[in-house]
């Protein structure tokens, strides 16, 4: 039974490595496709104008491939790494998605230059 010891050790090592990898994998991607928006400190709600305050279904990075494709389809070039948001509506008293302040341009369905709002 000595010849099987290396195989058992290999199986145990593989199982341990697999469980460590699985535990490091995020379970929930929060609607950003796995592309977190660039870090920006939350903007106090009072410092964001009503016109720029949005409640958005998706808040992600301009490097998100689905966001790049959407921007390109609208003729928008995302040159820098910024926060972008889609599925936005005016921010009311509550927001069940992501409250953001988008200070740059809105191109139809995509808002560019967004930062989170602290409510």
UniProtKB/TrEMBL annotation:
InterPro entries listed in its UniProt record: Class_I_Hydrophobin
The alphabetical list of record keywords is: Cell wall, Disulfide bond, Secreted, Signal
User: Where primarily located?
Assistant: secreted
Q: Name one Pfam family in it.
A: Hydrophobin
Q: Could you give one GO CC term from the UniProt record?
A: fungal-type cell wall
Q: Where in the cell is it found?
A: Secreted, Cell wall
Give GO terms: molecular function aspect only: structural constituent of cell wall
Where is the signal peptide, in residue numbers? 1-24
- What is stated as this protein's family in its record? Belongs to the fungal hydrophobin family.
Q: What is this protein called?
A: Hydrophobin
> What organism, scientifically named, is this protein from?
Lactarius akahatsu
């Amino acid at each position: 039974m000595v010849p099987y010891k290396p195989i058992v050790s290999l199986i145990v090592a593989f199982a341990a490595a697999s469980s460590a990898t699985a535990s490091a994998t995020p379970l929930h991607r929060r609607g950003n496709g796995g592309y977190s928006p660039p870090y920006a400190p939350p903007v106090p709600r009072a410092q964001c104008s009503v016109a720029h305050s949005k409640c958005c279904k998706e808040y992600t990075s301009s490097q998100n491939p689905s966001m790049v494709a959407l921007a390109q389809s609208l003729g928008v070039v995302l040159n820098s790494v910024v926060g972008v948001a889609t599925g936005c509506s005016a921010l009311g008293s509550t927001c069940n998605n992501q409250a953001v302040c988008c200070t740059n341009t809105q191109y139809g369905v995509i808002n560019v230059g967004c930062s989170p709002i602290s409510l």
